[in-house]
Amino acid sequence: MRTAVFLCFAPFLVHAQTLQVLDRIAVTVDQEVIAESDIIRFLRVAAFLDDKPVDLSGPSKRTAATALVDQALILMDASDSHITLLSPQEIPPMLQQVKTQYPTEEAYQAALKKYGITEQDVENHLQSGVRALRFADLRFRPEVQISDQDLHAAYDKFVAEWRTTHKEPPASFDQNRANLEQLLTDQRTTQALDQWLETQRMQRHVDYREDVFR
User: Fold this and answer.
1) Domain range for residue 127?
2) Considering the entire predicted model, what is its pTM?
C-alpha cells in the first residue's frame, strides 16, 4: 500500500525537485537575492514588449541579470535616501498603451500566455523602467551643465549628418537649440547614471553564480 501511495505521488515529487533546481540563486547583491526565475521572467517580458522570440541563452541571461542588479542598486539607494520613484497612477496608462497593440483583449491574453507571463509581470517590468528614469532625473539631471560650446559642437555634428541625406539646408542653430540642449542633457544624465551604477557594483558585494549563465 505504501509503495502504491509513493508511486502515486512520485511524479509530483520529481516535479517539485525540478522546480527547485530551476529556481536557483543566480546573483546576490549584498543580502538581496536574484533568482534564475527572475531573470527568465525579465527576458520573457522584454521579448513580449518587443514582440521578439524569447532568448534564454547564457549571454542573454547574463545581460538580464546585470539589468536586475542595476534595478536592485537603484532601489537600495532610493530606500536609503527616502526617494519616491513611482506614483501608482503612472503605470495604468503605460499598460493600456501596451494593450492597444492588440486588436482584442483575447489577443492580448493569448500573447501573455504565449510568452508564459502575467499582466502583473508586465506591470512590474514597466515600473522598474520608470523607477530607473526617475532616479536618474532626480539624482543626476540637476547636476548636468551644457555650455554654448557643447551646443555648437552638437549642432555642427547634426549639420554634417544632415547634409549626407538632405539637399535642403538644415534649420538654424537657434531653431535647434532647445532640442540640442535636451538631447545633450539626456545623454549626460544617462552617462552619469551608468558611471554611478559601475561604482555601486564595485562598492556593493555582487556575486554572480556562473553556472546559471553557461
Assistant:
1) 2-144+196-213
2) 0.83
Between CA 107 and CA 183 the distance in angstroms is: 37
In one-letter notation, the amino acid at residue 146 is: I
Give, for all 214 residues of the chain, the pLDDT tens digit. Answer: 444 433 443 443 344 444 445 589 999 999 999 999 999 999 999 999 999 999 999 999 999 999 999 999 999 999 999 988 988 889 999 999 999 999 999 999 999 999 999 999 999 999 999 999 999 999 999 999 999 999 999 999 999 999 999 999 999 999 999 999 999 999 999 999 999 999 999 999 999 999 999 9
Give 133-137's long-range contacts (Cβ < 8 A, gap of 24+): 134/85, 134/86, 135/74, 135/77, 135/78, 135/83, 135/85, 135/193, 136/189, 136/190, 136/192, 136/193, 137/189
Residue 136 lies in a domain: yes
Grid look-up 497593440 returns 101
CB 79 within 8 A of CB 146: no
CA dist 95 and 116 (Å) reads 17
The CATH number that applies at residue 43 is: 1.10.4030
Answer yes or no: is 171 within a domain.
Answer: no
Total count of domains within the chain: 1
131 in a structural domain: yes
Residue 49 belongs to some domain of the structure: yes
